[in-house]
């Protein structure tokens, strides 16, 4: 199985699929091709949320603002999964969820056909190759060199030391839910009660439907983080936040 | 075969796919993940139009404004198809098209991992389970209880008794075609002629291209209903209607 | 393998998939369903860019502003590929890339179930049929008649004779890159230098990242054509162009 993720929109992912299918009969599964354009951190967040639900697979991931520069191409192996991606950290948080240890290999790239579409010319052929050789075996071939000096990526850590807890919005999903870096356990025992968000008192509820349509709430999303939401509405608009906005939580 | 439908946008459907693929080798086919957000009636309409074209399959459907409340999770069996969905009526009109009789089973849900993403935590595992046990056999297992008191859903019926026929717009498709609940037979014998829509005389044509680009027409869509359209334009804008708008048809 | 391309958005492509899967176990691969609405030339461009990356396949293509009129339905065979499409030229440029010679067959269409959705009622069944009978063999059946008088489609040719080279924007991709009909070789030996675009001096670079974020550049896209782009921005906005806009290139 090979999953595909990118910020390419359409129809560029189809060229990647064609290249992969030239080399393998693997089942292809689209994860998403509408990640926020060239936003490595947002893609890294979503991949960390989604890839752990898959059975062992090769994951082709291309969010690549540095395409054509000297940034490297890597395979990140974790558990029985391998992520083929640019070396910009996009694969690392997901890999840490997929396995206890993370191994990174640099892909020895021959002169690619284009400078602007390495998804098609570098990463798709590599993903098919890793799949055909096997996640356990591909590193026995000279195209893959162990690589220690890879780009890491971590999400900002919240400040939980004071009376006011300080975090930020990491991403906003398609529903408008603003997902913060504040761990859900902070509000888990206050469900049905209320908390202060940026000074305003807001209900803390297990479900969106616990408040009237259009009303704001704080909940714990499926990712386990505190989420600023609105029942049948957009939390980002209702709280006037966007990715990167600071969020203060108090009681 | 398992089809997937939701209003989740992206990338949440990928988590459902991962969960399903953990449990089955079934072929996955996306129906749509951009149904209007939390609009049960619109999703029910589109599923009724689309699912009958599929061979026997399990259909995973998640449009679920009541997620996390006490609304039940159901399997709706009709013909050789099974629809796994929340008990809000979204599956019922499609099921009535798929088979002569409709059987509904309540899914006995264990404590799910989240309160906000039952697509991943409840419906995806159930769809895989129904697929693996078989559409004819899953109800032999204790996780599925016959359920009579399910939520039904029907579309508003037009008033065809007077000189002026009164219906409404059910949904607007991506082209802007406004699909009404008025049966197509009403205009089928007036093709090439004209009808009155909300008092204005409008050509009634078999094809969009029968009128000049940008001009309005009434036609019979692929769903068999009267449709308000514009050649190479948006019918909803041209007729100033949206879902729920009343439509009066006369001669 | 059957690929699917259309301008249908969602959920209409699912009905095509259902019809295809009634008749074949072929692997289905979506190319794109968000081609610009009823824009035959744009779809023809993208198909020419993408389909050559696929292994031998049947390609179902429906961008069909003339649906329901007397435009014909065709199969275009080239190499070991077959494209099933309306006879409006949409398949021809891709077919010329897929094989040295192009053969066109008219599909003998029985009375279709609708006048507005031949993707479902004509092209999907034909694509499944061509797949099951085989790309080499389908034309032995009476439903397919050799057809010489098909609609051709070619892209406008640039004027490269003077000191100022004159082309136009063919399409704009989802990133906002404006893809012209000017061949990339014109600027290939000026990488790192600059060129004049509509009179303004603009850097010519191999990669987007070679200029500062938001700055304009000229590059050679993955399609081999001159592309007007902006690093981490939209080239169409930065150059104030859209499909059809004239582009003047000078040194």
UniProtKB/TrEMBL annotation, chains A, B, C:
Gene3D superfamilies: Bacterial fluorinating enzyme like, S-adenosyl-l-methionine hydroxide adenosyltransferase, N-terminal. Residues 2-132 form the S-adenosyl-l-methionine hydroxide adenosyltransferase N-terminal domain. Transmembrane segments: none annotated. The keyword Flavoprotein does not apply. GO terms for molecular function: transferase activity. InterPro entries: SAM_HAT_C, SAM_HAT_N, SAM_OH_AdoTrfase, SAM_OH_AdoTrfase_C_sf, SAM_OH_AdoTrfase_N_sf. Residues 167-248 form the S-adenosyl-l-methionine hydroxide adenosyltransferase C-terminal domain. Keywords: S-adenosyl-L-methionine, Transferase. It comes from the Archaea. The keyword S-adenosyl-L-methionine applies. Belongs to the SAM hydrolase / SAM-dependent halogenase family. This is S-adenosyl-l-methionine hydroxide adenosyltransferase. It comes from Halobacterium bonnevillei.
């Amino acid at each position: 199985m090979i999953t595909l993720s990118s910020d390419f929109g359409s129809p560029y992912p189809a060229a990647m699929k064609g290249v992969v299918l030239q080399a393998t009969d693997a089942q292809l599964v689209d994860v998403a091709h509408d990640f926020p354009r060239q936003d490595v951190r947002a893609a890294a967040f979503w991949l960390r949320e989604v890839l752990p639900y898959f059975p062992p697979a090769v994951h082709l991931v291309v969010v690549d603002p540095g395409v054509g520069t000297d940034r490297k191409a890597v395979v990140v192996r974790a558990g029985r999964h391998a992520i083929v991606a640019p070396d910009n950290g996009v694969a690392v948080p997901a890999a840490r969820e997929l396995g206890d240890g993370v191994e990174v290999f640099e892909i020895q790239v021959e002169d690619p056909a284009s400078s602007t579409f390495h998804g098609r010319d570098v990463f798709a052929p590599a993903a098919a190759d890793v799949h055909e050789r096997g996640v356990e075996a591909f590193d026995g071939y000279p195209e893959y060199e162990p690589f220690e000096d890879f780009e890491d990526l971590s999400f900002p850590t919240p400040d939980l030391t004071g009376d006011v807890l300080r975090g930020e919005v990491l991403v906003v999903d398609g529903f408008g839910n603003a997902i913060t870096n504040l761990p859900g356990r902070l509000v888990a025992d206050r469900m049905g009660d209320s908390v202060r968000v940026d000074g305003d008192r807001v209900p803390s509820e297990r479900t969106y439907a616990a408040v009237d349509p259009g009303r704001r709430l704080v909940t714990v999303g499926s990712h386990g983080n505190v989420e600023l939401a609105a029942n049948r509405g957009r939390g980002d608009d209702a709280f006037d936040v966007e990715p990167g906005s600071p969020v203060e939580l108090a009681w």
